[in-house]
Amino acid sequence: MATQATKVKEESQGSSGGASIGMPGFAQRLLDYPRRFRQFIHEVRVEMRQVTWPTWMDVKATTAVVIVTVFFFGIFLFVIDLGVSRIVERVLQFFKS
Question: Does any domain span residue 56?
C-alpha cells in the first residue's frame, strides 16, 4: 500500500516516466482520463477482493430482524398516533364548546 501511495504521489507531481508535452490543464486532464479510470477500476477490484461477504444464513437472519423491527415500529407508531389524535380531538372539543 505504501508503494502504491508513493506511485500516486509521483504521478501527481508529473514524474510519470514519459515526456510531458506541456498541454493546458483541461486538455491534459482529458487525455489523462482513460488512465485514471483504469486505475480506479483496478483499485475497486483490489478492494472488493478484500471484502468479507456475509453467508446466506447471515443474510436471512438479518433480513428477518429488519422485517420484525419494521413491523414492531409500524404498530408502535400507529398506536402512538392513534392515542395522540384522540387526545388532540378531546382538547379541540373542550375548547370548541
Answer: yes
